[in-house]
Amino acid sequence: MNNILTIFKREVRSYFTSPVAYIIIVVFLIITGWFFTSSLFLAGVVSMRGVFEIVPFIFLFYIPAISMRTFSEEKKSGTIELLLTKPISDSDIVLGKFFSTLTLAALTLAPTLIYVISLKLLGSLDIGSIISAYIGIILMSGIYISIGLFASSLTENQVVAFIVSFLIIFALFMLNKILIFIPAPLITTVEYISTDYHFSSIARGVIDTKDLVYYVSSISIMLLLTRTSLESRKW
Amino acid sequence: MSIKVEKLSKYYGQQAAVKKISFEIKTGEVVGFLGPNGAGKSTTLKMITTYLTPNSGKIFVNGINAEDDPIAVRKKIGYLPEQNPLYQDMNVIDYLKYTAELQSVPKDKIKDSVKKMVRVCGLEDVRHKDIGELSKGFKQRVGLAQAMIHNPAVLLLDEPTSGLDPNQIIEIRKLIKDLGKEKTLMLSTHILQEVQATCDRVIIINNGEIVADGTTDSLQKRFQGQINIYLIVKKDPRYGREKVISSFESVKNVEKVKLEGDNENAWQLDITANKGVDVREEIFMKAISLNMVLLEMHQEETSLEDIFRKLTT
Fold first, then answer.
1. B74/A85 touch (CB, cutoff 8 Å), yes or no
2. What are phi and psi of B145, to 5 degrees?
3. pLDDT tens digits for B133-163?
């Protein structure tokens, strides 16, 4: 536990010692801000729907971008050897990096709470469904990040890591949008694998155990794969 | 704190990097792990640190089997990898604190151990700088500091002086020598002077196999048997080339006479004598008896460099 925290602290700090995190957060706010204001001022609707609809799209690119360096950079510079010869387990390293990246995603999301506060001042708002949507976004980010970590652990090239994780995430995201092309017996399975299917049900305000099981198990599987990929140096 | 390696093998695909090597390092020994590039030095060190797993064979660090309890083994070891990888974006103090935490140095002792390492490794002036801004010599000191932050009993250094300028090399060697006094230390290198300057014992490895193992003195003695004498004899019509060679060959205890060079007015000869016998006097007397003119004679002892070349080519 201590080791996870040590890795976590270093990773979070390294995100904020370079200007990249700040730039990305600002860009994220500009894009979501546009979707927020356009529905508020142009359509005159007091709703967070515009924002919640665009976030999964932005995260499609954003999460691979923040997770691509986690292992690739250490592999390239050789610091992975320092890390893996310290008396800590491979799982500690994977979990430390997972939670630090998740924290960065959550911190990116945090300023959007300003939108919620300003909407609350303007009209009535279903706070329950908004909280549920935020939980949904965090859980979805968890899956994206675990995929990003896995892709990053495969290569020492950050661009390759980005592309691989983007492709996997994009495929999972698109699955419930191509259901008409899927043979009928497979539809429920394919739909269940899709990330967006579970997100849209949570975003409606329904937190179902079925969805939670999906999120937790997918994240666990990807993190286990990442650990296996780290151990593959020994094979 | 001892290291014991038994029949260790490691394959990369089909290619064997290390073939069934065994050795033992006792507590407090300073051992040089010498070999040409690609001989399997780094691979062996990586296996001792448990970064890599051997295909076969066993490693014991202070009696603990590395395979059974890698975490316990890592706790005992301080390791400086080849190329000295460091987090370029961290400053020296933060980085040392980070390693101390990872090495599970008790919380209340982290500050002291960082301070001590900064002092021992001479990092006072750069302690608040980013590692990326440091010169190579200072980076190497940071690398050594991170390896020793938890006061490990075993120190493994993989080519600790590669890429440094001559002044830095001398400084780092001095540092290693000071540190080696209290620790079991194993350093890999392909530079002979390094071993001579810092180590009590040397293990020479070539193509994944150990070709020599012993103290630097004993190795020198073992191969020293062959003393070579270099002679330059003036050419003279009174004696021919064959005559010269055969007459020196007839000297007692001379094993072999080889003609090294033949120029306008002299022959160069390389005379190999039997182990441990000084034949200079007999050769001199022989030359006088034949009225030969000796322009030069000198004896060469086998240096560690010769041993290394002999063993690894």
1. yes
2. -60, -45
3. 999 889 999 998 999 898 898 999 998 887 7
Q: Do A84 and B51 touch (CB under 8 A)?
A: yes
Distance from CA of A83 to the nearest CA of B (A): 8
> Count of domains in chain B?
2
Of A17, A82, A234, the CB nearest to B85: A82
Q: Which of B203, B222, B241 is the last residue of a domain?
A: B222
B71 close to A (CB below 8 A): yes
Domains of chain A: which residue ranges? 2-234
Give the pLDDT means over successive 10-residue stretches in chain A (235 positions): 90 86 88 86 80 89 92 92 92 95 93 89 84 92 96 95 95 86 84 85 84 93 95 82
As for the ipTM of the complex, it is 0.86
CATH number at residue B236: 3.30.70.3190
- Asked if residue A166 lies in contact with residue A60, where contact means CB atoms within 8 angstroms, the answer is yes
Characterize B257-292 residue by residue with b for buried, 16 or more Cβ atoms within 10 angstroms of its Cβ, and e for exposed.
beeeeeeeebbbbebebeeeeebbebbeebbeeeeb
Q: In terms of CA atoms, which chain B residue is nearest residue A83? A: B102
Query: How many residue pairs bridge chain A and chain B with CB atoms within 8 Å of each other?
Result: 63
